[in-house]
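Sample entry (420 residues):
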Amino acid sequence: MRAALAALAALAALALAASPAMAQSSPWYLGASTALSHDSNLLRLGDNQPPGNGESRSDTLLSTALVGGLNQGIGRQRVTASLTLRDNRFDHNTKYNNQSYNGALGLEWSTVERVSGSLTAGASRNLSTFNADVLGLLPEKNFETTQGLNASLSIGLVTQYSLELGAGHRQVRNSLDIESVQARNYNQDEWSVGVVWRPLASFSLTSALRGVQGEFPKFSPTATGFDTDKFRQQRLELVAALQPTGASTLDARLSFGETKYVVNTQRDFSNVSGSLGWQWQASGKLRLNTRLSRDEGQDNYATRVGLLRVTINDRRVISTLRLQADWDVAAKLALSSSLQQARRQVNRDTLANLSTGTLSLGLDNGTDTTTIFTFGARWSLWRNAVLGCDARAEKRRATGTITTGLSGNSLNCYGQITIQ
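Predicted structure, serialized as tokens:
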């Protein structure tokens, strides 16, 4: 704890001593940050779930990081890069101490005509959630490593229309050598084709067809290796955006999706999701954001019940209402607050993988409502130095056999200084 307070004090002193002249215009930046946070329910334990041997329900985390990046315009093109190297130390749950990173490269380009595009690549390694659905509380730390590559192309066909194309690849790997954790590794390739119609400067309508082809390379172990679970997904998305006034923007999204599995066709799934949003610039300093969404999805995970290999098939519907307010109190001081309530319904089918086929072991269900309140303050000393704190309170009420109630409060205070 003393080391954490000393690190925050040192960063604050460095920021206060920094000269505004350090913030000269340059495409490069280099900096350091530190954050001290306390969580009353770090492991996301249920209300009646005790921590394991040697574990603590609440904990304090000291996270220090080096940050760097590039933002350089070259004619009509722009090159960006960012890298964060972070060291995370827990006060009580020391077995979760870790080093993580996040990096990204990007290129935005355009031609004299109506053609533009982007190319981005990213990689990250972070500690996964401690208490995951189906898996339960993990016995050791698990790193989730993600790599991705995305490209987009926009072509203005005529004045009111444009064509948008996209493609991407994503790979996720888990470090913990447990069958049920390794089953969550996946690779996926995706593409999209969309047409944007903009008859007015204040209105646009986008129609896009998206496809995904992916696989879980270690979905289920066998005597000689692993069974691969492959899937294909297609979605039709409709997005409308309207700006009735200069201070107000409305948007609506509707998505129709279908997922089909190559081998385990009994888990084929179709869904409808959507959202409504309203952004209002109430004054020069106050911004309000309201969003109502409904997401219908599915998760499939392989695990074991005793010696029997099974597949957990969760179908969920989540309805969420979120309100957010951002207030620029002064030139260097900003406050933000949000209130979110999400209601989730989950239907779980446990499928036994037998040599003669697949047998359902029974259906379970659960419903929970989660309320989250946040409040934050951010003080920009200069362009190159920031101090802030964020508070969060979460409460989940649950019924049924596959979800539990939980509560937790957290406070995170941070500081960052960069040289540019």
